[in-house]
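ZP: hey, is the pyrrole-2-carboxylate complex queued? I don't see it on the tracker
AM: it wasn't, my bad. submitting now with these inputs:
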Amino acid sequence: MSETTTLTITALQERVEAIFRKAGLNGTQAGAVARVVVAGERDACKSHGIYRIEGALRTVKAGKVDPDALPELVPQESTAIVRVDAKGGFASPAFELGLPVLAERARSCGLAALVINDCTHFSALWPEVEALTEQGLAGLVMCPSYATVAPTGGNKPLLGTNPLAFGWPREGKPAYVFDFATSVAARGEIELYRRAGKPLPEGWAIDTEGNPTTDPNAALAGAMLPFGGHKGSAIATMVELLAGIMIGDLTSPEVLDLLGTTTLAPRHGELILGFSPRAFAAGRSGDPFARAEVLFEAIAGQGARLPSQRRYAARTKSVADGIALTQAEVEQLDRLLALGLDAVA
Ligand code: NDP
Ligand code: PYC
């Protein structure tokens, strides 16, 4: 078995934050970005954990994200739309800035939307959805990425892997949360197969000729496929419309035109919706949270697991035992900390 090193969550946060500081990110950017990277590692979501640091640094080095950005709330009073201008920085600090205002508006209006413009988003969406559920709100979050997915019936990359995440708060229990790419798999997952020299499961991708492939390199050069055929294709299109066009930001093909590559983290906007279940259920019989529990119990009663259950179990273990990193991962973190942006091409 290969050697591992175990770090506490706090120690990993400090190390990842230091890497981002060394690479030139200001405190606002470095702290928030490190928090989502470490959360990914803590919850055993390897495709959005420390593996993402290098891509983020490459994006800084290429000048496609502003490491010194300070996100700003755009004044828009008395509306359910809260807008944060990320100022060309990463999405996470913009989200952290907008969250309290979104929560306050969602509570007072029943629902509210946080629009983030001009951000670079490379992480999972569940940290954002969970931040909403921690406020007692249900949440729906989505963003485009870059054109890497062929629409069903097509054969060329056009849509993004466009993640969609939802959360429902639960009293005394971890929230019900799902978060997935609208492609069969996230692109990060394909990259991990490539690095491991393993073939992809069938049905994930097509090559540049439009033929099915299980070769990760051919898949990355060709196109990924939407999940659930035409259904995933339509949901990914909805994400382009709502979290791209509607909020006055880039669609996935426009992101790819801007970056010219999928090796950098995508720059676009993000849409975060917060709902107050109590406000929606007001005047109707039954407590929405109690009714939701009946549904969750019925799901579990059939032997099915709730989404995020695996993640929460991994989190419990990480909190108790720390996060185990392979020797290669530790060496990579050391290299990034020592060299900063010189560590990436
Ligand atoms: P997965 O297929 O790994 O997981 C999707 C969701 O389904 C998770 O909530 C997972 O919970 C749940 N789930 C998995 N198996 C089961 C099961 N048997 N029963 C019930 N629930 C289950 O996600 P993807 O690979 O599609 O996406 C991975 C991540 O990539 C996401 O976090 C997404 O936000 C991110 N991403 C980000 C992009 C960006 O542009 N920022 C683009 C694309 C993806 P659990 O975790 O507990 O297994
Ligand atoms: O895994 O598909 C992905 C992805 C794209 C941007 C961030 N993650």
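AM: back. The mean pLDDT is 96.
ZP: great, adding it to the tracker
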